[in-house]
Amino acid sequence: MIALQAALPPLTGLRQALGRHGELSGQEVETRRLLREFLTRHTSLEVYDLAGGLVAAHREAQGPCIAFRGDMDAIPGPNGPYHGCGHDGHSALLAGLGLLLEGRRLGKSVLLLFQPGEETGQGAASMVQTLLARERVAAVVGFHNIPGYPLGQPLLRQGVFACASQGLLLRLQGKQAHAAYPEEGCNPIPLLAGLLGALPDLCRQVAPKGLLLYTPVGFQAGGFNFGVSPGEGSLALTLRADRQQDIKALIQAMAAWLKARLPQGMSLSMEDRDVFPDTTNHAPLVEAAAAILEQAGLAPRFLEAPMRWSEDFGHFLRAIPGFYMGLGAGEAQPGLHTPGYVFNDGLLSSGLSVLWALAQGLTPPSPA
Question: What is the pTM of this model?
Answer without folding.
Answer: 0.92
